[in-house]
Amino acid sequence: MMADTKNKTAEASEARRVLIKLQGLYLFMGLAGGFFNPYINPILVSQGFSSKDTGFIMAFGTLISIILQPVWGVLVDKFKKTRLVLVISLMIPALLAYFYNIQVYIILILIYTLCTIFQVTQIPVADSYAVTAARAANTSYGMIRLFGSLGTGLGGFAAGMYLSQFSIHMLWLPFLFFNMLSAILAGTLPKQTSISSSSVTFSVGLARLLRNRTFLLFLTGCFLVNQTLTAFNSFFVISFQMAGGSVALTGTALLLASITNVPSMLVAAYVLRRWGHERTMLLAAGAYMLRWGIQWLWPTPEVMLGVQVLHGLSFGFFYIAAVEYVASVTGREMQATGQSLFNMVFAGLGGIVGNMLNGYLLDTGGPSVMYLSCTISAALGAIILYIVSRQAREQRRAYSLE
Fold first, then answer.
1. Is the pLDDT of residue 9 over 80?
2. Coil, strand or helix at 47
């Protein structure tokens, strides 16, 4: 009896230690990304490339990462090296970041592609640890993931302060520092042999999901909404400064946007219970429309700064609702396949088209034209998601009558 109590106490203590390590890992990963990722485009533009050129670099890198994303899962499952993969995925982009300063287009395409190939596996592997650790510590995944949003916001703000003293071409130093801290923490995590498992093969699960018309409509709506997010992730810094915003205010805007994800993640579970997946996604799509529409009508630094409070309501709610929607409609046997397909469309295809389209529009028409296009795309996505919501209500009504 006493031995069982000691074992349970030891397990609880270990679960808390792993939880704290993961919260630190997400914080440092967020700091690294917040410091560097929003400024990749400005780094390239400062070297004489157009937004259209940089959009192609990002689109090409994202395309290659989508193609190779399933390979990471196969490698992890085959060689049982989850922790090693996570450490490598953090170290390689950190060591390559300096080479963004090379003014050769082909080399920049190669550097961005290599970084993206490794970075694409960071979140899936870290999330596999986080979900397991949250259950063991009797808490929620959101209590770990919010540290990533907090780190991203603080990193974006700190980058603005950093750039008031140092050249933009020196941003690779804090990126290297925080990624190395992340890698050190990742190296102390317990071994984990598998990211996910499924009783249905990827090809069979993919074929089943592609025959589901409602799921295809859902993916289409997600694509139309999320391709607009590149206007923030890839081009906000450039568009904000084109509108007259200062470097210091850029950091403040990035902090404001990321911090709003924290309360969104804390209340998302309540909103989903009350509103359901489909209506929550519609609410978030409406927030996206409002967010882009305001910046289209009033593309001034003050407005573009203030409107970032909608980031949590738009991206935060949409992403959490969409992930849980996929989990609810695919079932346990196709969970991995469904989430992989969702991410390939949501982040992959949406990122490719968004980077190329928004880069071209920003280059040729300025921020107003880019934000008008985003407003229209989000509105079309909202219409499709409304159809998905209506079909879901009809299906639930039909089941209740049986």
1. no
2. coil
CA distance 36 to 381: 30
Residue 72: pLDDT above 90? no
Other C-beta atoms within 10 Å of 153: how many? 25
Q: How far apart are CA 250 and CA 246, in angstroms?
A: 6
Check residue 336 and give its pLDDT. 57
What gap in Å lies between CA 40 and CA 29, rounded to an integer?
A: 16
Environment class of 348 (CB within 10 Å of its CB; exposed 0-12, middle 13-18, buried 19+): buried
Q: Which two tokens stand for residue 42?
A: 């400005």
Report pLDDT digits (tens) over 122-169. Answer: 776 777 677 677 777 777 666 787 788 888 888 888 888 898 888 889
- What angle is formed at CA 132 by the lines to CA 223 and CA 139, rounded to 5 degrees? 95
Chain-centroid distance, C-alpha 123? 8
Q: Which residue in 167, 156, 196, 160 sits closest to 76, CA to CA? A: 196
pLDDT level of residue 98 (50, 70, 90 thresholds): very high
> What is the predicted pLDDT for the residue at 198?
47
Distances (CA, A) of 130 to 22, 118, 136, 269: 7, 19, 10, 17
CA–CA separation, 25 and 395 (whole Å): 42
Amino acid in position 88: I
Kindly give, in sequence order, each residue whose CB lies less than 8 Å from that of residue 3, ignoring residues fewer than 6 positions away. Answer: none
- Of residues 284, 376, 371, the one with CA closest to residue 323: 284
Residues 187, 81: contact at Cβ < 8 Å?
A: no
Crossing angle for the helix pair 82-96 and 105-119, to the nearest 10 degrees: 160
Within 13 Å, how many C-alpha atoms sit on residue 14's CB side? 11
Question: First and final CA of the chain: distance in angstroms?
Answer: 50
Give the tokens for residue 127: 């999330």
- Output the furthest CA–CA distance in the chain (Å, rounded): 73
